[in-house]
C-alpha cells in the first residue's frame, strides 16, 4: 500500500514500478482539497475524517449520506477521488492506520493520546512504537 497525494504522476509511476501495490490517497491532503468547496469547515471535516477512519461499511455509508445531504460538492469530490483510496473500510489492502503521506503527520496522529505525559514517558513510547 502506497499513500500519496492525488498527483497523477505518482499514481502512474507506481503502477509501472509496483504493479501489485495499491494506491491510497493521503487523508490530510484530501481534506485540504475539500476545504475549497465548503464554508462551514468544522462539521464537514469532522464527517469526512469520521468516514475515513471507520471500520464498518454501514457506518461509512451513514456518514457519507449525511455528508452528501449537507455538502453535495464535497461528497462529489470524494467520489471523484475514489472511495477505496481514502476509506479504511474500502481499501483493497491493509493501511495499518497509515492515512497520511507525511511521516510527521502520521507520527503526530500516533502521539495525540500521550502529549501530556512527561518527556521521558513520551521518549519511551516513541522508542517502543518504532521498535514494534
Roughly what fraction of the amino acids lie in strands?
under 5%
Shape: globular
The succession of helices and strands, N to C, reads EHEHHHHHHH
What count of domains describes the coordinates?
A: 2
Order of strands across the biggest sheet? 1-2
Low-confidence stretches: none
Radius of gyration: 16 Å
Largest β-sheet summary: 2 strands, parallel
- Helix-strand makeup class: mainly alpha
Helical residues, percent = 55-70%
Helical run tally: 8
Number of strands: 2
Q: Span from first to last CA?
A: 19 Å
Q: Residue-averaged pLDDT, rounded? A: 82
GO molecular function: DNA binding; transposase activity
Protein name: Transposase
Pfam family, one: Transposase_mut
InterPro entries: Transposase_mutator (IPR001207)
Topology overview:
Elements: E1 2-4, H1 8-17, E2 23-25, H2 27-34, H3 41-53, H4 57-70, H5 72-81, H6 83-86, H7 103-111, H8 119-131
Parallel strand pairs: 1-2
Helix pairs in contact: 3-4, 4-5
Keywords: DNA recombination, DNA-binding, Transposition
GO molecular function, one term: transposase activity
Protein name: Transposase
Description:
The chain is mainly alpha-helical and 132 residues long. The protein folds into two domains: 2-101, no CATH class; 102-132. It is 61% helix and 5% strand. It has a two-stranded parallel sheet. α3 (41-53) runs antiparallel to α4 (57-70) and α4 packs across α5 (72-81). The longest helix is centred in the middle third of the chain and has 14 residues, at 57-70. It is globular, with a radius of gyration of 16 Å. The two termini are 19 Å apart. The model has no long low-confidence stretch (mean pLDDT 82).
